[in-house]
């Protein structure tokens, strides 16, 4: 397949080592400003993918992200934040990285080149045709990710992807591709920069929109968030106070008794 890897093209800037810190930061920031506009162009693709994820989750399905390197780590970050933010089970949104958990901190050489391993990793998680698998790869050429999606198709599992190269093998393979063309990186080929930012923005959209559609947000508040520290407990108390006419002390007691903002408010309304 012949296509242009815009993420690998030469930076718009040169002689970076001769730039002042001020100029480096200004120019990086100028490049970063282009990313949300690139994401905006992909909104119809993101909408189509989210619609499918929501439909699958409503029948008991789960969401899996698979990726290598930066892309894999971004998927893990998004997946790991869903339980504390939205109060969902830890296995509802899952991040899998080439090379296993040790690759989260340190690169595992050649792990991304194994075209068979992603499917083995998914099988270990009891993947089924109720689930959705989203492959993440800035280049759109990572064998680990492409191979995983191909095996998903063989087993009637719905797939999507997030990539930054138009016409890439990954974009062609996924049933619901999201292609965010961010162009050359400030440091040529360093796709942890603009491409990574684009992937993070899209992941935020996918998980947040999905959870809202599943009823995990009320109004604009995280009513099912886990109360895992003092800051979040205080936030929960104030959420309750904004919903029902109680004092801070009363709201705190309701939260302690019921374990979540949603249940505390529902309990108060039920007994009134």
Notes on the protein architecture:
The chain is an alpha/beta fold and 272 residues long. Helices cover 49% and strands 9% of the residues. The protein has a five-stranded parallel β-sheet, sandwiched between helices. The mean pLDDT is 96.
Please name the defining characteristics of this protein.
alpha/beta; five-stranded parallel sheet; 11 helices; 272 residues; globular
> Total number of β-strand segments?
5
Low-confidence stretches: none
Largest sheet: 5 strands, parallel
End-to-end distance, in Å? 66 Å
Strand order of the largest sheet: 2-1-3-4-5
Helix content: 40-55%
pLDDT averaged residue by residue = 96
List the helices and strands and how they pair.
Layout: H1 21-32, H2 35-41, H3 43-57, E1 63-67, H4 69-86, E2 93-97, H5 117-123, E3 132-136, H6 143-154, E4 158-163, H7 169-173, E5 176-179, H8 194-213, H9 230-243, H10 248-258, H11 261-271
Parallel strand pairs: 1-2, 1-3, 3-4, 4-5
Helix pairs in contact: 2-8, 3-8, 4-8, 5-6, 9-10, 9-11, 10-11
